[in-house]
Design a protein that fits this description.
- The chain has 345 residues and is mostly helical.
- The protein has one domain: Rhopdopsin 7-helix transmembrane proteins (Up-down Bundle), CATH 1.20.1070.
- The protein starts with 8 loop residues before the first helix and ends with a helix.
- It is built from eleven helices and no strands.
- The longest helix has 41 residues.
- Helix 9 runs antiparallel to helix 10.
- 69% of the residues lie in helices and 0% in strands.
Length: 345
């Protein structure tokens, strides 16, 4: 006896994509919890010490907390809408996949867009930091501001339209508007990521040219390029947009993953900043082709304490006895010498 529902293979495949996407999204949320705890552990001691960069560390801690809240809201409402589609409204015409596509959750959409804004803003800021010591720094700042303004406007329009009762009842409108918004956001991410990677590779080339190949590897390692450029976010965006363009139901799974990937990528960058491995304002050690910027005196290792010299006093005590030294010739007195001298005369 078969318990297979009376649905087509395409419907079952789409429902499986929705369900598997929700499960993997919960796994990514576990990564968000771990990364948030690691960032808190690294930033909190610096804030308590009130040392250098106190305001920046406090801002980063608030940013991490905000991302954690957004990620929690997203995974909670994603689980709720999955439950509603597969349990509460299992008899919806077309099955759970049709219900998922036709249903719009305002908190879920808001958390998705806000996390995207946070990720874009952090990527643009990191790009400006990388280009801070270049002549095109202000051009990068202006271009990044315009790009973020574009994603801010398109994201707000999508939220307003899908939040209306008429559009929330028809899922085609929400997905039709989501696609161009994500395309614009992906274009920003790819462009900013490309600028960041080019700067890292260029700096590696300059370092290797002066100091050798081994000295430039730390500035452009594979992990640094992936994290600093937020390639995880860009890859997840492509994994959603390409299947969606091909009209494949697998895009439903990657769309859910994208919401948590937008939180994971900034947390990785902030953790590198917290542990001192990210690109900073002093990372550009070469100011020109023939000069090298040394580290600050405070960063130089302290010399080992001097050891007090060992003073050793050696004294020799010599005892001389009268009979210890004797001459083989008899010694004459002064009177005898004078008498001998007189007789000779």
């Amino acid at each position: 006896m078969s318990y297979r529902p009376d649905e087509s293979n395409a419907q079952i495949y789409a429902e499986g994509a929705w369900l598997q996407g929700a499960i993997v999204t919960g796994v990514l949320y576990g990564v968000v919890i771990v990364l948030s705890a690691m960032c808190w552990r690294s930033l909190w001691p610096r804030i308590r010490s009130h040392g250098t960069g106190y305001k920046m560390n406090r801002f980063l801690l608030s940013y991490v907390t905000f991302l954690f809240v957004i990620g929690t809201i997203y995974v909670a409402f994603n689980a709720q809408i999955t439950q509603m589609g597969f349990i509460d409204n299992r008899l919806y015409p077309g099955g759970p996949s049709a219900y998922e596509e036709a249903t719009s959750s305002a908190p879920l959409n808001t958390a998705f867009v806000v996390s995207d804004w946070c990720a874009d803003l952090l990527m643009i800021w990191r790009c400006t930091v990388v280009y801070r010591d270049t002549r095109i720094h202000y051009l990068i700042v202006g271009l990044g501001s315009l790009l973020f303004l574009g994603t801010l406007i398109t994201g707000t329009l999508w939220l307003v339209i899908v939040s209306t009762p008429v559009q929330s009842a028809s899922g085609w409108m929400s997905f039709t508007l989501l696609f161009p918004y994500l395309c614009f956001s992906l274009a920003i991410n790819i462009f900013i990521s490309l600028l960041t990677v080019l700067r890292l590779l260029y700096h590696r080339h300059r370092i290797s040219k002066v100091l050798g190949l081994g000295h430039g590897a730390i500035y452009a390692s594979f992990a640094a390029i992936i994290i600093e450029s937020a390639a995880i976010y860009s890859i997840c965006s492509l994994l959603y947009l390409i299947p969606y363009t091909l009209n494949s139901p697998i895009s439903y799974a990657f769309m859910q993953l994208l919401g948590e990937a937008q939180v994971v990528a900034p947390l990785l960058i902030i953790y590198r900043i917290a542990v001192g491995k990210a690109w900073t304002n002093r990372s550009s050690t070469l100011r020109d082709e023939n000069s090298i910027q040394l580290r600050r005196p405070l960063d130089l290792p302290k010399p080992p304490p001097q050891v007090a010299p060992l003073n050793v006093e050696i004294s020799f005590h010599q005892e001389t006895h009268e009979e210890s030294i004797r001459s083989p010739y008899p010694m004459k007195s002064t009177a005898d010498e004078a008498d001998t001298f007189g007789r000779a005369i």
